[in-house]
Please model this.
Amino acid sequence: MTASSTELTALSLREAGAGLAARALSSRELGDAALARIGETDARVGAFLEVTAERARAAAAEADQRAARGERRSELDGVPVAVKDLFSTKGVPTTAGSRILEGWRPPFDAAVVERLEQSGAVIVGKLNMDEFAMGSSNENSAYKACRNPYDLSRTPGGSSGGSAASVAARQVHGALGTDTGGSIRLPASFCGIVGLKPTYGRVSRYGVVAFASSLDQVGPLARSVEDVALLLSRIAGHDPRDMTSSTRPVEDYLAGLEGGAQGLRVGVPREWFQGGVDAGVERSIRAALAVYEKLGAKLVEISLPHTKYGIAAYYLIAPAEASSNLARYDGVRFGLRAEAKGLKEMYAETRERGLGAEPKRRIMLGTYALSAGYYDAYYLRAQKVRTLVRRDFDAAFEKCDVVAGPVAPTVAFHLGARTQDPLQMYLADVFTITCNLAALPGLSVPCGLHAETGMPVGLQLVGRSFDEATLLRAARALEREVGALPPPALGTP
Ligand code: GLN
Model:
């Protein structure tokens, strides 16, 4: 008997890989099932900006030929996945969610795309996102809305909204996103899946459209901790083409995964529980902390006193770096070029037409913060705050092994609820941003459904530098107790 297409798409990445290894499944079947599922559901979800069906079929055929020869490159060999449209893909449109890159086909692949393909993974397309990864709801996408599979009237979170929505909607078995201030953890939390932002430098940024270079990091999203560990194992590692890439050897993220939480010291930051968090979210988080205690972990109260300056510091540093990174989009080298009578007019008209309101806002903020006379007062000061944030975590990790708390103050909010007020939108990042400022690894793991709304709640865990293994082990311990969330209904709004 052959499995139905929805049975195939519901398999975890590990299960799909195991089916391929046992030759019980073919990559062609899995690829066709993923494409069919995308065809059936994506008009409602809006996760994909580009579906690369032909390439996917060719890659699946190659995977099946390898399998016929008894060759297997990795657990991902033959498994359908997708990537945020921030990753350069050779010959395939790469927009970063912006009109200014419309029509750009990169002449090369991002390092992580290469690594996925070298692992045999079948990339089925490019995922929706906030323009240049600026946003917390995916509503800044210049192309289309992306919706939360658990409630189509709500946001999937951002900026990697398409990545999270696609995985939650069982369109693909795993996806890659980027996280500059929370963009993997927030959508993972809103969509009830697992998302990991690795330590800065753990995964190559080569070929990733740059937003804020000292904060950007690539990471995996999937429906289980194990699947996230599998993906991280394939994308992590040194790359000489990224100057900030670490030469540290990559750990075995699977070896200790089932090690449990006995003896683990879980730090609970006082400042993350001082009001401002929705009561139902807080209840889920506290229930997750109680699970850790039950499993033999020790809860330790810690303090991260500079949390309250995180948003202010981030919204100077990130726009400052963005204003510099986005200067390259001038109509000459990439994508859109507006017709105008002179060169300067062409630059201005291209940027006027090609960039949306949020990137423009950030370019103005960033240019201002970096300008003569203001640099010391804003950018330099924000960098000093960054050091203080890092020291908070250093002190905390003397007392604990992981820091635990909410990913966000609320569950996924309704589409349109915050689009008129950028500051309200920025506040969604209050708990995720400090992890990026401190360059530490952080993840979101589902800890249950919110009682009032039925929406998923994610627990955030932040770890020591390059200690992704402990984070994953801790997340797995919780996942084993909480169990899988019910699959989303893709209900009409
Ligand atoms: N929401 C944050 C911002 O708008 C973070 C985005 C991200 O992590 N890419 O900048």
